[in-house]
Design goal:
The chain is of the alpha/beta class and 345 residues long. The protein has two domains: 87 residues, Udp-n-acetylmuramoylalanyl-d-glutamate--2,6- Diaminopimelate Ligase, Chain: A, domain 1 (3-Layer(aba) Sandwich), CATH 3.40.1390; 212 residues, UDP N-Acetylglucosamine Acyltransferase, domain 1. It has five helices and 40 strands.
Length: 345
């Protein structure tokens, strides 16, 4: 249990209300009860603050005060909330263990404090760091390297020579290092290109469930430090992604494209191959990127254009049927005027 005063000290927040208010758990804004902490970061929640039954609410500094409710004002209420979650629900410490059903090549190097669960397969020449957790049914190919404090979830496949940086998380059902879509025309057939490259994922990355990241055809598919990908993302061969970039669900990035640092690629966007997306750019949802994007640009639409122009275009699209009707009407009137002029003596 924690009091409002204790939470405020923990996350450097300012108290409005009773500092002795006690909570024993956390919950969402709509589901929280009197003994639970929640947070509200969006202005749409501020008018509903008196509707929640939460005992304490973390809010941004510009949120209005409400009498009778204990509020904690924070620079970053969402981050503060999850610091409290970590305090109330700490992760269980990782215990060193290798399940008897795991199949591990004799020449593998495994660090101290690492846990390898049931039916894991690790090929020859691999190096597994300290305090790594490899969960059930994961297959790790030859000459892979997983650095310290990583978590490799269940049913993951790491193909030969894959590199994973320290403190990275790979979620279930990812396939990292499979061959890219590499073929060359041979008459009417498609000859497969041999892939000799590999995937390098940096430190502190998080790769969402069901991601597929292809190995380089000859070189490296490189994911920079701090990159976070959502579920169902596909990254093709020889793609380079800069540090701290976010890639949202169902994005597809074609081969040999370079994504800069601190880029945001929104859901279901598609990016063609051999392009450059500059640092700090934002690619909107469903966008189809077919040319380079300059640093800091915000683009949307298919094919992509400036987001500001796309907003204007998207407002016009629903009006196109009525605009077409009006245009046809104007054409008929113009033809009548022209014919009446030619008929006059």
């Amino acid at each position: 249990m924690l009091t409002a005063e204790q939470i405020a000290a923990m996350v450097n927040a300012r108290i409005h209300g009773d500092p002795g208010t006690i909570i024993s758990g956390v919950s969402s804004f709509d589901d929280a009860g009197p003994n639970e902490l929640t947070f509200a970061v969006d202005h749409s929640f501020f008018s509903r603050i008196d509707e929640t039954k939460a005992g304490i609410i973390l809010v941004p500094n510009d949120a209005p005060a409400v009498s009778g409710i204990t509020l904690l004002y924070s620079d970053n209420p969402k981050l503060a909330f999850f610091k409290v979650v970590e305090h109330l629900m700490p992760e269980e410490p990782l215990e060193e263990f290798i399940h008897p059903s795991a199949v591990i090549a004799d020449d593998c190097i495994i660090g101290r404090g690492t846990r390898i669960d049931a039916h894991v397969s690790i090929g020859s020449g691999c190096t597994i760091g300290s305090h790594v957790h490899i969960m059930a049914n994961t297959v790790i190919g030859k000459q892979c390297r997983i650095n310290d404090s990583c978590r490799i979830s269940s049913n993951v496949t790491l193909v030969d020579k894959t590199r994973i940086g320290k403190a990275s998380i790979i979620h279930p059902n990812c396939v990292i290092g499979s061959d890219g879509f590499g073929f060359v025309q041979d008459g009417y057939a498609h000859a497969k290109l041999v892939h000799t490259g590999y995937v390098h994922i940096g430190d502190c990355c998080e790769i969402g469930a069901g991601n597929t990241i292809d190995r380089g055809t000859l070189g490296i598919t490189r994911i920079g430090n701090g990159v976070k990908t959502d579920n169902q993302v596909h990254i093709a061969h020889n793609v380079k992604i800069g540090n701290n970039t976010l890639v949202v669900a169902q994005v597809g990035i074609a081969g040999s494209t370079t994504i800069g640092r601190n880029v945001i690629i929104a859901g279901k966007a598609g990016i063609s191959g051999h392009l450059k997306i500059g640092d700090g750019a934002i690619v909107g949802p469903y966008a189809g990127v077919s040319a380079d994007v300059s640093p800091g640009d915000i683009v949307s639409g298919i094919p992509h254009i400036s987001h500001k122009i796309w907003l204007k275009v998207s407002r016009i699209i629903p009006r196109l049927p009525s605009l077409r009707t009006r245009l046809l009407s104007f054409e008929k009137r113009l033809k009548k005027l022209e014919s009446s002029r030619t008929e006059q003596p």
